[in-house]
Predict the structure of Heat-inducible transcription repressor HrcA.
Amino acid sequence: MLTERQLHILQAIVDGFIRSAQPVGSRQLSKLETVPFSAATIRNDMADLEELGLLEKTHTSSGRVPSEKGYRFYVDHLLRTRSLEGNDLERIRSIFDDRLLETELIIRKTADILSELTSYTSILLGPDVGQHKVKRFQIIPLSDDYAVAIIVTDGGHVEHRNFHIPEDIHPSDIERMVNILNEHLVGVPLHDIDRRMQTEISGIFRRHVGRYGDLFRSFRESLSTTNEEERLFFGGRMNMLTQPEFNDPEKARQVMHYMEDEPLAALLFDLGADGIHIRIGSENGHLAMEDCSVITASYTAGEGRKGAIAIVGPTRMDYARVVSVLDYMSRGLSRELGRHLK
């Protein structure tokens, strides 16, 4: 059980290290108006906190830095969030100024602004679009051999799927194909399209579209390329390299490799968890992330569709600011996407 004075000193050390990235010494703390204790008293308490595993001594300084255990104690017991200021609120609200933006563009814009506001890396997991219902199909030829299928959903999501056009397919066949898709698949959930293509659309193509077999197969294959990683949107991916913790080229390489491996990055999210969650260092379960903290929050996008936001930074992260920004952003995103989908 820590004394009130030890709690005060631990908080001052963590806050000071977050600001400066430099070890914090007893003499330095004793000069702060907010720490009304002598340097000798602070030194004794720092030694006790080190013995408890909450602080660590560096090799290059007599000062102390928080340990992973110290950060966890700070986050669980001492963290005080603060209200966002006007400029922050204005930047966040600017995301939702254009009510005509597609859901995907709102999420991309959110990722960029979050990275600007925090100076860390932001990752957004878009909501599962499998429940979205088709609003319309459009097919645009890109060349004699290729076209892009555009699928717009009722949730403002837009899919682009390139597919090969077999030889001797006439433009009128493509036009008939679009008409068939819009007549029979509008209102169908995205996750059900493949089944409907097999059981219903293939027979209609056979009757109305020339050389339907090759065209049908090529189009259907293009629709089956959706994967989980396509729901990830990054902001400030290089921001980690500006943090002094990653001046070591090997550490920087490991973290950047992790960020570029989208299936790995997707593991940062737990869609079953609501609210704000903080993982520190080894809690992330990957060697590359042992010097990082990850703060996540979930959001909703109407009709039970969920997505999530993650901010990735050093363990010396400004937890209070990130939690405040993330809490405000996740609630705002849920509210605006809910309106957007009505």
In short: Strands lie at 55-57, 64-66, 121-125, 134-141, 146-153, 158-164, 232-235, 276-280, 292-300, 306-314. The chain has three domains: 4-78, 86-128+231-340, 130-228.
